[in-house]
Amino acid sequence: MTFSYESRKQGIEKAKNTTADLLIIGGGITGAGVAIQAAASGMKTVLVEMQDFAEGTSSRSTKLVHGGIRYLKTFDVEVVSDTVKERANVQRVAPHIPKPDPMLLPIYDEPGATFNLFSVKVAMDLYDRLANVSDTTYANYMLSKEEVLEREPQLNQDKLLGGGVYLDFRNNDSRLVIENIKRAHEDGGIMLSKVKVVRVLHDKEGKACGAKVEDCLTGEQFDIQARVVINTTGPWSDTVREMDENNDLPDQMRPTKGVHLVVDKSRLSVPQPTYFDTGKNDGRMVFVVPREGKTYFGTTDTDYTGDLKHPTVTQEDVDYLLEIVNGRYPDIHLTIDDIESSWAGLRPLISANGGSDYNGGNNGSLSEAGFTQIVDAVKEYLADSSKKSEVEKAVKKADASLAEGTLSTSQLSRGSSFDRSKDGLLTLAGGKITDYRLMAEGAMKHIQQILKEEFDQSFELVDSINYPVSGGDIDPAKVDQEIAELAKKAEAIGLNEEDALYLANLYGSNLPKALTYNDLIEGLNLRESIALNYALNEELVLTPVDYLLRRTNHILFFRDTLDEVKDAVVNKFAEFYDWTADEKAAMHQQLETVLAESDLTKLKKGE
Known about the structure:
- By secondary structure, the protein is an alpha+beta fold.
- The protein is built from 20 helices and 20 strands.
- Strands 1, 2, 9, 10, 11, 12, 19 and 20 form an 8-stranded mixed sheet that branches. Strands 13, 14, 15, 16, 17 and 18 form a 6-stranded antiparallel sheet that branches.
């Protein structure tokens, strides 16, 4: 079953004439997570997204499945425990996407430092315990100052004490979304991008029963009827509620903006992801991450009140990040002209739920006695590893003393919110990309109950911990081996080893299908031809920007080769969709506008 423009048209016609069990508004990671579980459970599922899938928040993260070690500064053990357990679940269902990539945490002797050498060891040991990291391959370890500098000689030596290394995971955020969406489509769900909600519909009793939507490609408006409607639009959650005239719940979102900048590896080279305090005593930390021969760094974490659809990188953002990175790597002297690409995104924070995934939050206070008990227990454990049980006892006591040690009834994961308006409209918001499966699972239990009690419809929920996304039919314990075997299939049709591995990691167990789309496209090599043909036929890609920014990361991490391929990509889209000359010109201009924004062209010109 292809997932293309043709199947989209068929899905629209079916959505017009079917009463869905569940209508999902929003096609980021939260909506995609609900969609895969709903469709797999046999529910008639329709998802509508006003932009491309993952175009909002879910393609603009730091691109890590982050374990949240910073929460251990305040011994917020439950947060970290939940996060690392869910990280393992995500790696199980999408083994070709999150990949282990140990993080280096340099420790400096400076005001406001998150960790010192002792506390970072305490935190990392607890972290490994919570994450069930028992093998020596990924177990944490400490580095002396000299060892840190041997690994990263460009780091600032002043006040450097040493460092720690612990397990974290890199991620391809937009690919995680599309693979969830594709599996939901494979299971019979109707997944519609570039279809926006105009208003929430109500039945005679005033209950939410669907939505009036508009096809953004044709301008056609039509109704989608549904027994249950869920709002999973992230930063737009309050906006959708405002479209519901019978909604009685207040606004709850407090979005913050995060910015990331990309430079060539030759300008800033790090051997592994690196995470450090800003050095400004402002309570923030910054990542520096190697990827695809590039290095990107971020993130900012500032309140945002602008256009939700179009957050941008400002001069202030650039100055802030360059100051921090140049401070930590004082000999590199990065300037705005070194930046090859960039992205800005919003985090859908809930006003009442405290801090972000990256910079921690006040999730409860720990008493001095509780703190001392943990420290003393960990000291004993470090001296004698047989005393792990003492650490566990201290942690349990600490959990009990936290002011918010348990989730509220409206939370499905830390930092999330799940509510039902008086007219029945559900809203699932907040959380972290790491928690998306857990959040969806919690929502699905409520949806299952509503469908049973209010509509006499019974469904058995899928075991979502063991239900792989599209492309995820790979043994999580043998990922490297199976990816290598898949890559050999690509080499067999003429791809070199590097390109074969790239596609195997991109598509996972879908690679054999992708390789059938091997007709060469004029102006593109075999790897690019396969990727574009597959995206057009199997990943509902509707514009060149969708393809170059979200089905692949070409705009972000292959900017230096993009000018060589962009015209060929636009030409193929024009041929595939039979665009007029004016339509083709408009799409070409859209691409150039996005590139100029990513390139920071105006800022570089001083505009």
